[in-house]
Amino acid sequence: MTTTVTSADGTPIAFDTYGAGSPVLLVGGAVNDRTTVAALAVVLAEAGFQCVAVDRRGRGESGDAPVYSVERELDDLSAVIDAVGGATAVFGHSSGAILALEAAARGLPITKLAVYEPPFIVDAQRPRPGEDLADRLSALLADGDRDGAVELFLTEGVAVPPEGVAAMKGQPVWDWFAGYAHTLPYDTTVTGPGAQLPVDRLAAIAVPVLVLSGGAGEAWMGAAARAVAETVPHARYESIPGQDHGVLNAPESLRPVLTDFLR
Prior knowledge:
eight-stranded mixed sheet, hydrolase activity, AB_hydrolase, alpha/beta, globular
């Protein structure tokens, strides 16, 4: 069932609800919408949770605004949480994990928080993106170059090798990415200039946090996950064997660890 709530700035935010039980809000990352977390929502609903899959602003059936800010996205999450009972557990993936961490740090009514591979850069395993990446993405989009924005985000923001980007072009996934290109500056802004670990804000989180990464994923993402777990006061880290950043395509791999943590 799709429901729409109105955020503080008047933007409509859409979400689907699966199952019944304790609520769990699912927050996707870049070029994701509520459909990309739907399979995980079904898995957790089968385990006895009420799962809420949200379209972040600018995606799916949610609206948008001329000016973006992280604070407005936090208002969006707050409106959804209020609509599903006033407090909820949260699972966030990638930049959605960072947004969820920000929500917890700023005191939104989150009972527990599970995050998968928040893409901070904590060592020298990959280059750090330029601090003006969001501005350069916005400039390409203003010129109508959605493909260029996707390529810049993938190569500099996510460190996908050029040959990997070339392999995506012409594939259905590229059209999906280009369709959400206008939201790439949003995710880059959420991640922060240079993808630095926000130590002070993470240290302010007061709820239990489970930080996950894939055992078959990128080493720099695993390092980031461990650093988050070491920084948040009530956190622990766990690796999901055989998985990488595309874990949402294998939701059953998350069932045991998430059901154990969220109960």
